[in-house]
Amino acid sequence: MKPHSLVFRLAMLQQVLAAALIAVFAGSAVWLSARTLEREEVRFLTATARKMADNIDHDLEKHDDLERVALETVGEDAPVGVRVDVLDEQGRQVASTAPARSPARREETTTRRAHLSHGGWVVVSTSTRAPRSAISALILALFLTAVPLFIAVAAISRALARRALRPLSRMAGQAEQATLQGDLHALGHPTDPVEVATLATAFNRLLARVDKMLQTEREFTQDAAHELRTPLTVLSGELERASSDASLPAPRREGLGRAWDQARRMSELVEALLLLRGSDASAPERPEGLVPVNLTDMLREVGHELCERLPERAHDLEIVAADEVLVWGHAPLLSSALRNLLSNAFKFSEAGHAVRATSIVENGAAVVVVDDGGSGIAAADLDRIFDPFFRSAEARASREGFGLGLPILRRVARAHGGDVTASRSDLGGARFELSLPVWTSRRNGS
């Protein structure tokens, strides 16, 4: 289940709160209105019954005829919409405002009565239909008012949530920009709320520590590699010269040859570490290191270089390239990236297996695709092959290397605003796709 955004959650909380408040207000209004109508109706009926009873008692002092007096009083004083019945002492009806033969229809009524001092009762009643209709009309009016009010609250709540979370969005943008540029800048803004400012301060302290640790690690790696480069170069040269001395016994020359081979591998490791750190430090935002690079020409040069070094594989390589595929980048780093792509394809495919390199411009990106006819990459290793020093079981068993070629390739690609992916090739082996922004889009956007 996809998690909802914080804006959505805050807006939903506000909408739920608004809906609850509207429901409570509407319910309270309906309940109070119903109770008020009921109370006023009872008060009115009680007052009417008492008034008519007083009038009948007053007229009975002059005319001792309950039926006559009751009929006159009921005809003159009965309010509209109210039924008035006058009963004698035995409870018999002597006068009424109801028709003599009313239909047999039962409905709920509210009734009040007043006692006559000369004996008998005045009974006043009214139907509850009118109050119920009034309450129903009130409910409908509240509903028609609540619907647009809730819609307005929903729209306003989302806008308010976005506005309230704008400082966090700004911090996220600053962090993303720092990630792209490779520089850790302070997050936050002076106008941020206290809570956001506290969070920004905590993140800034963490970023400062991370930046210091990364800088220390980079400096240590570079210093160590630089310090090792010269003695390893001298050692390799001396061992190479010594192993070629024909006056030495063959076993000793073989031992010196093995030592020279190991020294050469250590020198390659140092160079790879320096290149790895160079790709970290290089960012395409730095104009002094950027030049227009034609990937097609560079791909052909690297392919020619590898074919000269591996003449037995010269017929396996096929380069299908557009005339001009320009990117805006660091030429040495990009050359190293292409060299790693082709070297990896030769390394993990046997002689006679095809290696195809293609360079095209597709969807605004410069793409270099290298396919090989080797055994391919195990599905379990696809997510790990770009990790530094990772080597698959096959590579450890039958191939030399340090597991730095592909990590260097990815870091170079990302330092130029691109990326590299691996998949299964239609040739049967591995397929690597290096994608970089084309030169025109980078230049226009700078």
TrEMBL record:
Among the entry's GO cellular component annotations, what is one?
membrane
**What does it catalyze?**
ATP + protein L-histidine = ADP + protein N-phospho-L-histidine
Which SUPFAM superfamilies does the UniProt record give?
ATPase domain of HSP90 chaperone/DNA topoisomerase II/histidine kinase, Homodimeric domain of signal transducing histidine kinase
Q: What is its EC number?
A: 2.7.13.3
Q: Where is the HAMP domain?
A: 162-215
Tell me the compartments it is located in: Membrane
The family database entries (CDD domains) matched by this protein are listed as: HATPase, HisKA
Spell out the residue ranges making up region: Disordered: 92-112
Regions that span the bilayer: 12-34, 134-161
Tell me the ranges covered by the Histidine kinase domain, including all copies: 223-440
One GO molecular-function entry: phosphorelay sensor kinase activity
Which Pfam families does the annotation name? HAMP, HATPase_c, HisKA
Look up keyword Transmembrane helix and say if it applies: yes
Which keywords annotate this record? Kinase, Membrane, Phosphoprotein, Transferase, Transmembrane, Transmembrane helix, Two-component regulatory system
Name used for this protein in its record: histidine kinase
Q: Which InterPro entries does the record cross-reference, listed alphabetically?
A: HAMP_dom, HATPase_C_sf, HATPase_dom, His_kinase_dom, HisK_dim/P_dom, HisK_dim/P_sf, Sig_transdc_His_kin-like_C, TCS_sensor_his_kinase
Tell me the superkingdom of the source: Bacteria
